[in-house]
Amino acid sequence: MEMKWVITPMPSLFPNDKNETLDSDGDEVGDNGDAFPNDASETKDSDGDGVGDNTDVFPNDKNETVDTDGDGVGDNSDDFPNDAAQSRKLDDQSLEDSGAGSLHYILMLMLMTLMSYRRKA
Ligand SMILES: [Ca+2]
Ligand SMILES: [Ca+2]
Ligand SMILES: [Ca+2]
Ligand SMILES: [Ca+2]
Question: Whole-model pTM?
């Protein structure tokens, strides 16, 4: 009896796409086009921040991925990430750090003093 080896090539999962043969996570997006080949819940990362579009609350902003309080301001730029009513501090920290904040404060005080003098006169 003659032994005959028949080598059948692995059937491609993507017979109509020559760029794809495997889909490791089975989400129907081939490994080559899948930004997360081992995560069935993610296939794309539009902003390239490493968080898939489905999980990324800001899929087009690479600086933000979550908004804990849901006020539309991402946690990284939200001064109050757990308070939906506030997202920005009233004082600008960068101004204060450079000393311009205190100068601004002194000017305001002078202006107010001037105004109160005018009222008395
Ligand atoms: Ca896939
Ligand atoms: Ca992303
Ligand atoms: Ca993002
Ligand atoms: Ca927020």
Answer: 0.61
